[in-house]
Design a protein that fits this description.
Layout lengths: L1 H14 L5 H22 L6 H10 L8 H23 L5 H11 L5 E4 L6 E4 L11 E3 L5 E3 L6 H13 L5 H15 L6 H15 L12 H12 L4 H28 L4
Antiparallel strand pairs: 1-2, 3-4
Helix pairs in contact: 1-10, 2-3, 2-4, 4-8, 5-8, 6-7, 7-8, 7-10, 9-10
Length: about 270
């Protein structure tokens, strides 16, 4: 049922194309700021939505905030721009492209901090390269969840790319499954969640849908849905992504229709 709602909204949006450049600029700016803020905040960035907005629009920074957080915001915004170029140039989704996305996210960042807050240590990272050591996460229940072994990463990533390029799933379901699969593999030392959300939206955009923004305030529901997917129950995560796609379509339609109303076109 939710896919029917989404496709009706998409048809409405398609009927309004081509969208006026002024409206597209408003939509693109809003999504770039919201997407960058929320995706980085989920991963622990200290920047607020307002700080992210001021920095991306005017280059303004706040005292006391880590340079790394600003680099991550800048890199993420550039990654979004690159996704739009990929769509225009009709580039296929490949392992190489996914690695390039990771490299772009970590441009100028040489290391990450790992471990508990009181005994954190620096760990060198290799942007655009698969991990060489095992990685894991502490779940919401306090259990250790291990990801794919490094030796199996190339094989699993090859399977992921084949699934994306030979799918019979609805594009929204495909985007959710691709996101989950990349996170389940966890092919990189860091940034897997951000790469997964970029990949998810790249798939949506390639099929003419609009980007999904997983909001920081829904972080717990997002992680719970991913954990259920780990147990083989994908439905909650697919529904979460679908609900956000519907929200994005509604938001864009509202912006367009308000603008048209001001111009007396409705």
């Amino acid at each position: 049922m939710i896919f029917e709602d989404i496709d009706k909204l998409k048809c409405r949006l398609d009927s309004l194309r081509p969208i006026h450049p002024e409206i597209m600029e408003i939509i693109d700016k809003k999504f770039k700021i919201d997407w960058t803020y929320n995706s980085n905040a989920i991963e622990g960035s200290s920047l607020s939505l307002q700080e992210t907005s001021f920095f991306l629009q005017y280059g303004l920074t706040s005292k006391g905030k880590p340079l790394k957080d600003y680099l991550e915001a800048q890199n993420h915004a550039e990654a979004i721009d690159w996704l739009r170029d990929i769509i225009k140039e009709k580039k296929p989704i490949t392992e190489g492209l996914i690695k390039e996305l990771h490299a772009l996210l970590f441009k100028g960042i040489d290391y990450i901090w790992v471990g508990p807050p009181d005994i954190r240590v620096k760990k060198k990272i290799s942007p655009g390269k698969y991990k060489t050591e095992p990685n894991y996460v502490i779940t919401l229940e306090g259990e250790i969840h291990y990801y794919c072994e490094p030796i199996r990463v190339p094989e699993e990533m090859e399977k992921l790319v084949k699934m994306i390029n030979n799918s019979l799933y609805h594009p929204v379901e495909l985007s959710a499954r691709a996101h989950y699969k990349l996170v389940a593999i966890h092919p990189f030392d860091d940034g897997n969640g951000r790469v997964a959300r970029l990949l998810m939206n790249l798939i949506l955009m390639k099929y003419g849908y609009v980007p999904v923004v997983i909001k920081q305030e829904n972080r717990e529901d997002y992680y719970k849905a991913l954990m259920k997917a780990d147990a083989g129950e994908m439905d909650d995560f697919i529904q979460l992504v679908a609900a956000e796609e519907r929200n994005s379509l509604r938001l864009i339609l509202e912006i367009i229709e308000k603008h048209m109303e001001k111009r007396g076109q409705i």
